[in-house]
């Protein structure tokens, strides 16, 4: 969506209680709505769901009532609290394209998804179902109950044996499972620095020595500042420098639902082995 969708934010209904409850300030809302919005979708009862970044890198979901060029704020939450709302609007979120990413299909066709496969942030389950269709013992986790419900329905419709659980990718050690393969399609790049370190440590806890993480994230080659953080190749290698081996880092693309006039974004496809 264009940055000029709204020119002002009205917070007359905002309260100190809301700020205290959700930890989102008025200044952060203004940053996400006016400066760095990256996606919107129709909400319920005449509202608009607007997704944006703060200058500090927080992903916010802001529910607004459009009033011309003003956005009257109804609610705002960190996306970690509000992830399920991404799947309850009238339009699917940009990443929920209804099919696996082509880069991951190529890996599956090459026989790379075998054994115990975990998708750490599976959404509506396309990559878990891709692995299951190739004979893997496949499990997907996601914070969003609506996404997990859709994933389970897809598995039943397609006659595939796959498990889907509501769980937090930041709590991977609590999953009490060991994986041979971890799939990350667009999860790593949504975290801030602190949570990203926690996430990488969690990957190390669940992935057996010699196991492989196939990771796709936004690349610094992608123009603009909408959406998740872009990573340089050297940054990715640094994140996985302790106890990992980055076997390959290849320029690739994400397929997306239409956003900012594009249906693809520049990405890295990383093949990372746990030592």
From TrEMBL:
Quote the protein name from its UniProt record: Class I SAM-dependent methyltransferase
Pfam families registered for this protein in UniProt: Methyltransf_25 (PF13649)
Domain named Methyltransferase is located at: 117-211
Return one GO MF term: methyltransferase activity
Under the heading PANTHER family, the entry gives: METHYLTRANSFERASE, UBIQUINONE BIOSYNTHESIS O-METHYLTRANSFERASE, MITOCHONDRIAL
Please tell me the species this chain comes from. Answer: Actinomadura alba
Keywords linked to the UniProt accession:
Methyltransferase, S-adenosyl-L-methionine, Transferase
Tell me the GO BP annotations in alphabetical order: methylation
Q: Which domain of life is it from?
A: Bacteria
Kindly indicate whether the keyword tRNA-binding belongs to this entry. no
Q: Does Transferase appear among the keywords?
A: yes
């Amino acid at each position: 969506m264009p940055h000029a969708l709204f020119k002002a934010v009205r917070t007359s209904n905002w309260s100190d209680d809301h700020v205290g409850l959700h930890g989102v300030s008025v200044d952060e809302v203004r940053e996400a709505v006016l400066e760095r919005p990256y996606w919107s979708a129709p909400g319920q009862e005449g509202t608009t769901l607007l997704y944006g970044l703060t200058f500090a890198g927080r992903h916010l979901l802001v529910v607004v009532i459009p009033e011309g060029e003003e956005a009257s704020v109804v609610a705002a939450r960190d996306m970690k609290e509000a992830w399920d709302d991404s799947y309850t609007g009238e339009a699917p979120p940009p990443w929920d394209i209804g099919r696996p990413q082509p880069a991951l299909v190529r890996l599956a066709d090459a026989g790379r998804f075998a054994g115990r496969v975990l998708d750490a942030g599976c959404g509506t389950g396309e990559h878990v179902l891709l692995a299951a269709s190739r004979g893997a013992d496949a499990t997907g986790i996601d914070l969003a109950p609506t996404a997990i419900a859709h994933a389970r329905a897809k598995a039943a419709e397609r006659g595939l044996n796959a498990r889907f659980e509501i769980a937090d990718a930041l709590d991977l050690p609590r999953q009490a499972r060991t994986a041979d393969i971890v799939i990350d399609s667009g999860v790593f790049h949504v975290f801030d620095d602190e949570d990203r370190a926690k996430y990488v440590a969690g990957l190390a806890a669940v992935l057996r020595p010699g196991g492989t993480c196939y990771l796709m994230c936004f690349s610094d080659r992608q123009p603009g500042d909408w959406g998740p953080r872009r990573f340089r190749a050297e940054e990715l290698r640094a994140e996985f420098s302790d106890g990992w081996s980055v076997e390959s880092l290849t320029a690739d693309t994400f397929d997306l639902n239409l956003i900012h006039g594009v249906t693809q974004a520049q990405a890295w496809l990383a093949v990372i082995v746990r030592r």
